[in-house]
Specification:
Strand content: 25-35%
Number of strands: 14
Radius of gyration: 19 Å
Order of helices and strands: EHEHEEEEEHEHEEEEEEHH
Number of helices: 6
Distance between the termini: 52 Å
């Protein structure tokens, strides 16, 4: 049995506040005998203050408002590792590349002694490409809790991203988010907001598509012009939500039996086995892009 925890919390530019919050969450996780904890996107240093203004108008993010750029071998990651001890954790931050200039929206899975894997966000929503370079690959990493795949936020909208991880043996896919409410006409009750609905639907669909455990963390509260929707959760391979924070800050915790659940969920219909790759060729043919562009602009 493994105990999983997905966190909804508010992380800002104040690194000391971030470290104190991580320390509090680690203690809470220890009290609950958690084996794997997933913190939000940009948990070290906070996210961008805005993704846009109205409609599709993108507001550039100035250098002054960017999150701190962190090297993997820098003191910030070392500080987090010292807090974690033996607790395996996924965490998001703004990574500074070795060239000293390029920034990535990055997630890592690590504990106090080991960095098991690092992922740079591939799919970028409105405006994010003005602040970060895009990653170019998905990986699955062996950890003490099993094989873990990492995604960040908007990645969950792309079925191909989760599928490639499942095919690489992912048992758990962790999606770390700073997912806000709709930028235009948000619902008065954020739990009923259309972007909250999409966030939750993607989580359930990606878990069921690939029959994997899905862990979704998210920022909560507000930052800049963004109002986050929380809803950290753990979803089983049947698409069932085992635990959720809803809009609140907190920790969604569930105890799971990975092997037994996979045997049960995949005993009949096994989606990875029943695929038909021989008919999926057009998915990766770049010449197909002209057709959907014609349709979208019709």
């Amino acid at each position: 049995m493994k105990t999983l925890a997905a966190v909804s919390a508010n992380f800002t530019r104040d690194l000391e506040q971030n470290y104190a919050l991580i320390t509090s969450l680690v203690q809470r996780a220890r009290d609950k005998d958690v084996d794997f904890m997933v913190l939000p996107e940009a948990a070290i240093g906070g996210y961008l203050p805005s993704l846009g203004n109205h409609g599709d108008t993108v507001v550039p993010t100035t250098q002054r408002s960017l999150p701190p750029a962190i090297r993997l071998d820098g003191p910030e990651i070392a500080r987090v590792q010292a807090i974690l001890g033996d607790l395996v954790t996924a965490i998001g931050f703004c990574e500074l590349d070795d060239d000293g200039e390029t920034r990535y929206n990055t997630a890592a899975v690590l504990d106090g002694g080991t960095v098991y894997g690092v992922y740079r966000k591939v799919h970028q929503p409105l405006g994010e490409s003005m602040s970060y370079a895009a990653g170019s690959r998905y990986g699955v990493y062996d950890t003490p809790v099993g094989r873990v795949g990492l995604q960040i936020c908007y990645d969950k909208a792309f079925p191909e991203a989760a599928r490639i991880m499942a095919l690489d043996g992912a048992q758990i896919i962790a999606n770390l988010s700073a997912w806000p409410a709709a930028r235009t006409a948000p619902a008065e009750n954020l739990q009923e907001d259309r972007w909250t609905y999409r966030f939750n639907l993607f989580d359930m669909a990606r878990a069921l598509d690939n029959q994997v455990f899905w862990m979704a963390s998210n920022q909560s509260g507000t930052f800049g012009s963004l109002r986050y929707v929380g809803n950290a959760k753990i979803v089983d391979p049947g698409g069932n939500i085992l635990a959720t924070t809803l809009l609140d800050s907190g920790m969604a915790v569930a105890e799971v039996d990975l092997d037994a659940t996979f045997r049960t969920m995949r005993a009949g219909m096994f989606h990875l086995r029943d695929r038909r790759p021989d008919v999926y060729g057009p998915l990766t043919e770049t010449t197909q892009s002209a057709k959907w562009q014609e349709v979208s602009h019709a």
